[in-house]
User: What shape does this take?
Amino acid sequence: MPLATDRRRARWPLAAFLGMAAVVAGLAATGVAVQSEPAVVIVSPQDGTYVSGPTVFQVRVEPAGVEVRSISLFVDGRLVCTLDHAPFECVFDAGPKVIEQTLRAVAVTADGRRVARAIRTKGVAYTENVDVDVVHMTASVTDGSGHFVRGIPRESFRVAERKVPQTITHFASENVPLDIIVAVDVSGSMADVMPQVKSAVKTFVSALRPTDQVTLIGFNDNVFTLARPTENLAARLRAVDLMAPWGGTALYDVIVQTIDKMGRQASRRVLVVFTDGEDLNSHIALEVAERRLETSDAVLYAIGQGRAPKVKDLKNTLERLSQKSGGRAFFEELDRLDRVFASILEELSNQYLLGFVPKDATRDGAWRPLTVEIPGKNYRIRAKQGYVLRPEPR
Assistant: This one.
């Protein structure tokens, strides 16, 4: 008799489980909402990506509506912040080198439940320990037909500074983080074309990856931030809708100020500037903007509209600034803006990130020409043409 009782008891949990499953299925079939267990989602950075320097650690709790008492964020077991209200995000310093790190978020709900989630970031495919500044640069490689070439190993690249071969100390070709600033000219002369510009910018911003750090800037005779990297896509799109044309144009100011906004992590730093006219309102000179690009590893993609394709000096300026940074200048009609943005997106998804420690680390402020080659291959490589090591401040 006891044996039979034990058997019935042993079968009870399974029977109860099957019964509950049937109840849940029945409720779902009738459209009755079934409350799911809360879960932590790490929005940024994502699992398997690269991080270094100031990094945004952002999480959310699902399903929406779950009351959260607190969320603690840890990096390699070290508490970096504790948050008690949305948005659940903070900035931590991931360090100067791109190394593997474990990021963990622990949430405590209002009813006392604890839920956690952890991810692991990646280190670059090849890195050496260095104690001096690393020069980072991106390279796009195309074949004779103009198609991007993927899967090229580090060993195939040759980098030279002032014709002196340099040792590649950092290399990555996949999931390279993107720090991108989209700067849109909202001067008064943009009034007639602003609806088309808004549509094209929204398409471009929507196509970027959730892991990309995206800042949206508007500029006329002033420079102002419309959406920061911590804001979600919906907020960015609302910011685009709110753009209104007025004022003059300060192109050189926006180049300098946006580069200064970029972080120092090992990433692809990209500045996409849309402008339709000649700079008449900047507080700084063209030479200052050019010098700032030379001392940065940011890549400039300039999109000239309106007078830009027609005024030779302005067109030459945009081309020179873009090419020196390793980027490109576009002068397309408004109805082709989507193609321009698609071309930029394709290039961004096929770039290599190279880094080296200059053998001559003297901060002399002189222009240092760079060359990037892949010996034995008839490839076209677009990369930064050179850089300047700024002198140490006195």
About this structure: The longest strand covers residues 54-62. Confidence is low (pLDDT under 50) at residues 1-21. Residues 44 and 210 are 8 Å apart (CA to CA).
